[in-house]
Design goal:
Largest sheet: 6 strands, mixed
Order of helices and strands: EEEHEHEEHEEEHHEHEH
Radius of gyration: 19 Å
CATH class of the largest domain: Alpha Beta
Strand order of the largest sheet: 6-9-8-7-10-11
Distance between the termini: 16 Å
Strand content: 25-35%
Mean pLDDT: 95
CATH superfamily of the largest domain: ATPase, nucleotide binding domain
Structural class: alpha/beta
Oligomer: single chain
Number of helices: 7
Shape: globular
Length: 241
């Protein structure tokens, strides 16, 4: 059996990963993904299947090239069979990365209520129930978006970096903004966690996961491969069915 390739295409870069079963053996973030980059990957690993996911483009050129190379390739869509149920009322509008992250978290925590939090440009909160059903989630502004909004929509508030002193109560304007934004997100996370069962699993991913995770006072996981893990899980599910 060959390796699986997963591609999570974003607006400015592509996250690619090669999987041997459930184990990741290679991963990279590429500013550009084309025939040359694919050739380099498949020259190192005997890829038998691939899963493409994008919130930015349809990826038809990449998918066509993978298929030309003899690699069975799936493009994640709202009609792709999933290993979990999807109760979202408009699955066609659900971000592919969100459902992939939900599947990735479920693959490691079957039988538990799971809160999946992606701390990227936006903060997304998604819930998978213990019986394996994605019931939906919420979308909120991310860290940088909140900091920029306070600066752009006021006349005197400065643009503040998220790195630095962050007391519970701001000691000056800089720390008041930083603490308001970061502690506000921590408060959101605690609120959503408290809406679930007594002991839900909380899984963080995204660029700000480590920073926000350090501010939480309860057990949680950080998985920077969560979306690609979910893509691999979906691909394997379809290969086996």
């Amino acid at each position: 059996m060959g390796y699986n390739l997963t591609i999570d295409q974003g607006n400015s870069s592509a996250k690619v990963a090669v999987w041997n079963g459930n184990d990741i053996v290679f991963d990279a973030v590429l500013k550009q993904l084309g025939d040359k980059e694919i050739d380099e990957i498949i020259s190192r690993y005997p890829i038998s299947g691939a899963m493409y996911c994008s919130v930015a483009c349809d990826g038809r050129d990449i998918i066509a090239y993978l298929q030309k190379c003899g690699i069975a390739t799936l493009n994640l869509s709202d009609t792709t069979p999933l290993p979990i149920a999807n109760a979202y009322k408009t699955p066609q509008s659900l971000g592919r990365d969100r459902i992939a992250a939900a599947v990735g978290a479920w693959s490691n925590h079957k039988g538990c209520d799971i809160l999946v939090i992606d701390l990227g440009t936006a903060v997304t909160y998604d819930v998978v129930t213990a019986d394996g059903c994605y019931i939906g989630g919420n979308i909120a502004p991310g860290v940088s978006m909140r900091l920029e909004a306070l600066h752009n929509y006021t006349s005197r508030l400065p643009l503040v970096d998220c790195i630095g002193n962050c007391p519970m109560w701001g000691e000056d304007t800089i720390t008041a903004i930083r603490s308001g934004v970061l502690n506000g997100i921590v408060g959101e996370i605690n609120h959503y966690k408290n809406q679930l069962s007594q002991f839900p699993i909380v899984v963080l991913t995204g660029g700000n996961a480590t920073m926000i995770g350090a501010m939480l006072n309860f057990a949680h996981e950080i998985d920077h491969h969560l979306v690609t893990r979910g893509l691999n899980c979906i691909l394997r599910y379809n290969e086996n069915n």
